[in-house]
Amino acid sequence: MFDTMTTTKAIGGICGTFLAFLLGGWAAETIYHSGGGGHGDEDQAYVIPVADGATDEVVEEGPPFAEIFATADAAAGEGAFRPCAACHKLDGTDGVGPHLNGVVERPVGSVDGFGYSGSLVAVAEQWTPENLNAFLENPKGYAPGTAMNFNGVRRIEDRANLIAYLASVGG
């Protein structure tokens, strides 16, 4: 069947292929990691942010919320309310969410006839501007398990303006 010459050629072909892969790997390692430092010794050129990833960065604290809220613009907050209007009303009737007129300084979970989630009622006694700020920044983080499906308002100025607008609407 096979003579020694055919067997020698087959084994030589396999060894040659293996040698080509080893040399290719060595060449690639030399080209892409020149300098010999490896991955941990050099800074990355680009860092991809990960939502739930732990970071070593120090978050710079801005001015306190009370200071920003003192200079908030209720007229600008009316514009910030537009996304909220999809689920909340300001006329005393409930939509998908409870009505928000008079929400500032109102006890949490106090709208009669609206079925609040237990996690929302457990986070605070009253909707102070500070509590509203924390909730509007990250609703699911502030009240885990809340039925409110909203990602939050990222800018502290927008949250302050929105809360000022809601305070001006009254109950």
UniProtKB/TrEMBL annotation:
<protein>
    <submittedName>
        <fullName>Cytochrome c</fullName>
    </submittedName>
</protein>
<keyword id="KW-0813">Transport</keyword>
<feature type="domain" description="Cytochrome c">
    <location>
        <begin position="72"/>
        <end position="170"/>
    </location>
</feature>
<dbReference type="Pfam" id="PF00034">
    <property type="entry name" value="Cytochrom_C"/>
</dbReference>
<dbReference type="InterPro" id="IPR009056">
    <property type="entry name" value="Cyt_c-like_dom"/>
</dbReference>
<dbReference type="GO" id="GO:0046872">
    <property type="term" value="F:metal ion binding"/>
</dbReference>
<dbReference type="InterPro" id="IPR002327">
    <property type="entry name" value="Cyt_c_1A/1B"/>
</dbReference>
<dbReference type="GO" id="GO:0009055">
    <property type="term" value="F:electron transfer activity"/>
</dbReference>
<keyword id="KW-0249">Electron transport</keyword>
<keyword id="KW-0479">Metal-binding</keyword>
<dbReference type="InterPro" id="IPR036909">
    <property type="entry name" value="Cyt_c-like_dom_sf"/>
</dbReference>
<keyword id="KW-0349">Heme</keyword>
<keyword id="KW-0408">Iron</keyword>
<dbReference type="GO" id="GO:0020037">
    <property type="term" value="F:heme binding"/>
</dbReference>
